[in-house]
Amino acid sequence: MTWPQHRHGELLQLSQNVWRVAAPVPGTLMKRQMVVARDLAGRLLLHSAVALDGKRLPHLEALGTVTWLAVPNGHHRLDAAAYRARFPSLIVIAPSGAIPRIQEVVCVDLAYDEFPAHEMLRFHAPPWPSPKEGALEIRDGRRALLVFGDLILNPVGSGSAEWVYRWLGQGLQVPWLAKRMFVRDVAELRGWLLQLADTEGLDALIPGHGEPITVDAPAALRKIAAAI
């Protein structure tokens, strides 16, 4: 399989064992991002794959052993098959309700609720059957980071993207399209987000699109929940 060629930014370190890289979503003004978490055994979990170029892929491989790939929903599967082809032993994980769509391009090995207990990594699923998206909790020392796919949007940008977001009056939110595609019950979603806001040591929210929220992450998540 030919390795995809995408524009993307640098692999930026967020904490001792967590990195992220942003890349434009083809054909849109938005950026997507891959989050990389390294556990105590030096194994890497990639969340929402972005195919890295020849300069940065060796940097990723030098961080540890690429072991898991989380595909957060059926629309964040763009580079999943390329990573599976390059790393044949890669374990692909996805929300149970998104597995049929994701398996159109790559085989899924585990649903979120089947991921074994881990000292740093935990998948959260919303409280309804066969959810199509959830959240990844990464514990890095005393810090906790929550990583989302499309359920949370933090629309920031520059140039034309910033102008469009301002014109639409968009801010940190659960986007209406995500509610329509992924949410069975708004009240249940609100309660689930409020539960996540109580995560011990919660220090950052990383949305699938937009910049991480690193200032009072629990309050930001409660504000998102209240605005649904």
User: Which outline best applies?
Assistant: globular
What is the straight-line distance between the termini?
A: 42 Å
Query: Quick one: CATH class?
Result: Alpha Beta
Which homologous superfamily in CATH is the superfamily? Ribonuclease Z/Hydroxyacylglutathione hydrolase-like
CATH topology: Metallo-beta-lactamase, Chain A
Q: What is the count of structural domains? A: 1
Largest sheet: 7 strands, mixed
Helix-and-strand structural type: alpha/beta
Task: Give structural attributes.
7 helices, Metallo-beta-lactamase, Chain A, alpha/beta, 228 residues, single chain
Model description:
The chain is of the alpha/beta class and 228 residues long. The chain is built from seven helices and 13 strands. Strand 5 (65-70), helix 2 and strand 6 (91-94) form a beta-alpha-beta unit. The chain has one domain (12-227): Ribonuclease Z/Hydroxyacylglutathione hydrolase-like (Metallo-beta-lactamase, Chain A), CATH 3.60.15. Strands 1-2-3-4-5-6-7 form a seven-stranded mixed β-sheet. The protein has a four-stranded mixed β-sheet with strand order 8-9-10-12.
List the helices and strands and how they pair.
Elements: E1 12-15, E2 18-24, E3 31-38, E4 43-47, H1 57-63, E5 65-70, H2 80-86, E6 91-94, H3 99-102, E7 110-111, E8 121-124, E9 135-140, E10 143-147, E11 153-154, H4 160-168, H5 176-182, H6 186-197, E12 202-206, E13 209-210, H7 217-227
Parallel strand pairs: 4-5, 5-6, 6-7, 10-12, 11-13
Antiparallel strand pairs: 1-2, 2-3, 3-4, 8-9, 9-10
Helix pairs in contact: 6-7
